[in-house]
Design a protein that fits this description.
Blueprint: H1 2-15, E1 27-32, H2 40-50, E2 54-58, H3 67-78, E3 85-90, H4 99-107, E4 115-116, E5 119-124, H5 134-139, E6 146-150, E7 159-161, H6 164-167, E8 175-178, H7 189-201, E9 205-208, H8 227-240, E10 257-261, E11 268-269, E12 271-274, E13 281-286, E14 289-294, E15 302-309, E16 319-328, E17 334-339, H9 348-351, E18 354-360, E19 367-377, E20 389-394, E21 399-407
Parallel strand pairs: 1-2, 1-9, 2-3, 3-5, 5-6, 6-7, 8-9
Antiparallel strand pairs: 4-5, 10-11, 10-21, 12-15, 13-14, 14-21, 15-20, 16-19, 16-21, 17-18, 17-20
Helix pairs in contact: 2-3, 2-8, 7-8
Length: 408
């Protein structure tokens, strides 16, 4: 009998269901793309070393494409290596069909399938325009999944997140999305700031927006070598033990104020304007001085001037500031200031655009300075384009020649 049992144990192990992650635990995941020339055995080994729990496979519906991934995991198990689990990442169309999730888990053995709270993990990318019927599509699956969906979906997911690479910012949600950046990674500083924010927010899950993407991945390449693998290992460790990351000091760390001015050079002294879809601007000459002026945009009647505070001055650390705006007081109407706040009483979407009030034009025709008080600013790059606050006006233009941010 003992011999028979010993012979059956390996088979039982191959058929066993992998332990489920707790819905209240700290889970790390990363998007994994089925790219030509991919080396899944190497990738999965590095994922485990870096502390990644789940490889979210960008699945287009071909079950055979999963076979190399399963073979790679089995090979690592035979070498007595720990491995990440496989979860399905789908990007459905407007007519929502999630049947690919059933096909995915039919092909992935239970021993490698990712479960959270005892349910198979289903992860959805951003919703397409006019998408509808998510809840009904979930009900058509063979078993209820643990559903993680981008905030653009209308439905009732178990967890939600905001894709920072798509939106230009990342929201404080139960799942926080992090990325090392694409074109300008600032030698790892962008990645460090994203993880700093994630660790401070203490979410239930953190997802890397790409493991093996050429432009936005963290996997080893001849150009970036192991830099981002080593950083990922460090940050996932800090996240799981709730050890706060300390950001390095920079040019504006000890400063009491930062400013943008079109009057003097350099214009940017720790504060810079950021162009976004709603925040287009020109440099123009008005009343004998150069200034920034809002432009019309295709998004609607609201025009904005968006500003990014240098991260060495303040980054995701709630404190009080005063913002002084010098503007051309011409005509009628009013403009407002909205800022990325640390007000946890507000929903995540509202927290990053908290109002600091508005200023009405008095029609003097001269340059005028008004101040806004921000008692709980976080300046965590939470607004579109990675900006920290914005000046907004409707159905007319706004011209400013200086903006100053002072610590209180």
């Amino acid at each position: 009998m003992s011999l028979a049992v010993s012979l059956l144990l390996p088979l039982l192990g191959l058929q066993a269901e992998a332990p489920s992650f707790s819905k209240d635990g700290r889970v790390t995941a990363a998007y994994y793309y089925l790219l030509p020339g991919a080396k899944p055995e190497t990738d999965f080994l590095e994922m485990e070393k870096a502390g990644i729990d789940v490889a979210l496979v960008d699945f287009a519906g071909d079950p055979q494409a999963l076979d190399p991934l399963v073979a790679a995991l089995d090979a690592l198990v035979k070498q007595k290596k720990e491995t990440p689990r496989l979860g399905v990442y789908l990007k459905p169309g407007a007519k929502v069909d999630l049947g690919a999730a059933d096909a995915f888990y039919d092909r992935v053995p239970k021993r490698h399938a990712a479960r959270v709270d005892g349910r198979l993990l289903l992860w959805l990318g951003p919703a397409p325009a006019n998408a509808d019927g998510l809840d009904e599509a979930v009900q058509r699956l063979r078993e209820p999944p643990f559903l993680v969906a981008e905030v653009s979906w209308k439905g009732k997911p178990d967890r939600s997140y905001a894709l920072g690479a798509l939106r230009g910012f990342a929201l404080d949600l139960p799942v926080v999305s992090v990325s090392p950046g694409t074109l300008d990674r600032e030698d790892g500083k962008t990645y460090e700031r994203n993880w700093y924010k994630a660790v401070r927010l203490e979410p239930r899950m953190v997802v890397l927006e790409s493991w093996n993407g050429a432009a936005d991945g963290v996997a080893e390449t001849p150009e970036r070598k192991r830099k981002y693998l080593d950083l990922t290992h460090r940050f996932t460790r800090d996240y799981k033990v709730n050890e706060k990351i300390v950001l390095p000091k920079g040019k504006w760390t000890a400063a009491t104020q930062v400013a943008y001015t079109s009057v003097y050079n350099p214009h940017e002294e720790g504060l810079k304007p950021v162009a976004t879809e709603e925040g287009l601007f020109d440099t123009v000459k008005l009343r004998g001085f150069e200034g920034l002026s809002t432009k019309e945009n295709k998004k609607g009647p609201v025009r904005r001037l968006c500003f990014d505070v240098d991260d060495s001055f303040c980054y995701f650390e709630t404190r009080s500031f005063m913002v002084a705006v010098e503007f051309l007081d011409l005509g009628e109407g009013a403009f407002s200031l909205e800022y990325d706040s640390g007000d946890r009483t507000l929903p995540a979407e509202q927290r990053v655009v908290k109002s600091a009030g508005s200023v009405r034009y008095s029609g003097t025709g001269s340059w005028k300075t008004e101040t806004f008080r921000l008692p709980d600013a976080a300046f965590g790059n939470g607004q579109p384009g990675g900006s920290d606050f914005r000046l907004s006006i409707e159905n007319r233009g706004l011209a400013v020649r200086s903006v100053m941010v002072l610590k209180q």
